[in-house]
Write a structure and sequence with these properties.
Blueprint (H helix, E strand, L loop, with lengths): L28 E4 L5 E6 L6 E6 L4 E6 L16 E6 L1 H15 L10 E4 L1 H4 L5 H14 L5 E4 L21 H10 L3 E6 L3 E2 L4 H5 L29 E2 L5 H16 L5 E4 L19 H15 L5 E4 L13 E3 L8 H12 L10 E3 L12 E2 L5 E2 L5 H14 L3 E3 L8 H11 L7 E2 L5 E6 L2 E7 L5 E7 L4 E5 L4 E3 L5 E7 L3 E8 L1
Parallel strand pairs: 6-7, 6-17, 7-8, 8-11, 11-12, 12-13, 13-14
Antiparallel strand pairs: 1-2, 2-5, 3-4, 9-10, 15-16, 18-19, 19-20, 20-25, 21-24, 22-23, 22-25
Helix pairs in contact: 6-7, 8-9
Length: about 500
């Protein structure tokens, strides 16, 4: 039996499918109600137009944004498909995913990436020395972290992706080759739709960018957030033939000569913002973005793992292999609890629309101070509650697992826990309406994921049959069963991961 909770809160759940670091009204699906009486209204396609579902106390409006384009009176305009579903929440979101998949078949993936990401332990100050210091430790302690993701900071300026910063003595092609020689796979971070004011790209090819009314490149800080580093950013125009060729040439070089098969694409939303003047004046922002992504896929012959990060979700349907479904990790328990809610409300997307990326697994304190998504530098406090929340949430997501740590700081207990997290079939847990209690059935037993969302302290009770073992999977310790029950006491923003298996 599932665990019971002493106070169940029912609420309207609204899924915000655009993950910006600034306010955005776009919301292509809406869910109201609970249990068997849940109603879902949603856009099942996004080929040309953004869908917004606007809700207030009196009405629900379904809006498809045609932007400031001219449409001949005698020609039909093909709008995006809309669906209205009623039933049990987890059942109807699965049906919704299948309907979306008919319009936007998900990309196939060759394997679920498991690896290491440089950003959360090193930040933008990455160097060849730090990459290989970590690689040596990973090879010794955690060789299962196969993909070595070189994140933001290797390039001199945003936009100049084939150049390396002065922190590197060799071209990135040689560094990627050495990662392969060590028995690992290089993965690269790119932001293909933006460029810095200092970049060679903007200086030499200003015509590749979204323009303002005066015919000059439009700076994103004039219309929205200007970017978190090396900004303010300018937005590449996915409808411009020169910009498309630039994207193709960059990605083709990295694919063919660097040997990279995994790409983390960040700041993608800047390629689909509905501002400014584009080369093709009849194209919507969605079309501009999708043309840029199509160009990228041509460069890799359709054979790469493409992760969308800070990307417009619905315009990315069918255009990415994986999608970040939360904001960035910050080493705070309250922030981590919020990320878990974001993620679990989107667990239904995992392996139906794309592979879900819950962001990085964090088990140790960062070495340097780290820049957050807003560009603010933070120290990295050690809070045990944060690590427990993060680790359990990543497991419950069923998604990608990338360590964001300096692995040399891992204890034997950390390595053992990493092994338990990676012992997975990569399916997502199914949660209740409050996103508080989730379950996942595996070949070896049933896993429970419990998150105390509100109360200062809360008791949870799991009823178990005789002749079974109950394991606290975070610690690896066996829990005692009393009178057929296991009781857990969790403080606010605490979490538990329990597995019930045969003795």
């Amino acid at each position: 039996m599932p665990p019971s909770s002493s106070n169940n809160d029912f609420a309207i759940v609204c899924y915000l499918h655009i993950l910006f670091y600034f306010e955005c009204p776009q919301n292509p699906s809406y869910i109201i109600g609970t249990g068997a009486h849940t109603v879902l209204i949603g856009a099942a396609s996004c080929n040309r137009f953004r869908t917004e579902i606007r809700v207030n106390g009196r009405q629900i409006q379904i809006v498809q944004c045609l932007e400031d384009l001219a449409y001949p009176a005698d020609e039909p305009v093909a709008l995006e498909d809309m669906v209205l579903l009623k039933g049990e929440k987890n059942a109807i979101v699965k049906k919704f995913a299948r309907l979306i998949g008919k319009n936007h078949p998900p990309k196939k993936y060759f394997e679920m990436p498991v690896g290491w990401c440089s950003w959360y332990c090193i930040g933008p100050n990455i160097s060849e020395k730090l990459i290989f210091e970590n690689l040596r430790v990973i090879k010794q302690k955690t060789p299962q972290l196969k993909y070595i993701q070189i994140d933001d900071g290797f390039q001199p300026f945003m936009g100049d992706w084939l150049e390396t910063s002065d922190k590197f003595d060799r071209p990135m092609r040689e560094i990627c080759a050495d990662i392969k020689k060590a028995g690992f796979e290089p993965a690269i971070w790119l932001a293909p739709f933006i460029a810095s004011p200092k970049s060679r790209l903007l200086r030499e090819h200003s015509e590749y960018f979204v323009q303002d009314a005066a015919g000059r490149p439009l700076c994103s800080d004039r219309v929205t957030f200007g970017g978190w580093r090396d900004g303010p950013w300018y937005m590449l125009d996915g409808t411009h033939p020169g910009a498309q060729q630039y994207i193709y040439d960059v990605v083709r070089e990295i694919y063919e000569n660097w040997g990279v098969r995994y790409y983390k694409l960040d700041a993608n939303v800047w390629g689909g913002l509905p501002f400014g003047v584009r080369y093709d004046k009849n194209a919507t922002a969605v079309e501009a973005y999708r043309r840029g992504m199509d160009t990228l896929w041509k460069a890799v012959h359709g054979e790469a793992f493409i992760l969308g990060c800070n990307a417009p979700m619905w315009p990315s349907l069918g255009e990415v292999t994986a999608m970040r479904v939360t904001n960035d990790v910050i080493r705070s328990a309250a922030h981590m609890a919020n990320l878990s809610e974001q993620c679990f409300s989107r667990n239904w997307m995992h392996r139906t629309l794309w592979v879900n990326d819950p962001d990085c697994l964090i088990m140790s304190d960062a070495i340097p101070e780290i820049m957050d998504p807003a560009g603010v530098i933070h120290k990295s406090p050690i809070k045990k509650k944060f690590y427990r929340l993060n680790n359990i949430y990543v497991r419950a997501s069923g998604g990608m697992v990338l360590s964001g740590d300096y692995v040399g700081k891992y204890t034997d207990a950390d390595i053992a826990r990493l092994s338990r997290i990676l012992d997975t079939d990569y399916t997502a847990a199914e949660f209740d309406d409050a996103l508080e209690i989730g379950t996942k059935k595996t070949k070896s037993g049933t896993e429970y994921f419990i998150f105390n969302r509100k109360a200062l302290w809360k008791q949870y009770e799991i009823t178990v049959a005789s002749g079974v073992r109950v394991i606290d999977m975070y610690s690896g310790m066996e829990l005692k069963v009393k009178h057929g029950h296991v009781r857990l006491h969790l403080s606010r923003n605490a979490a538990a991961w329990v597995k019930i298996c045969r003795a």
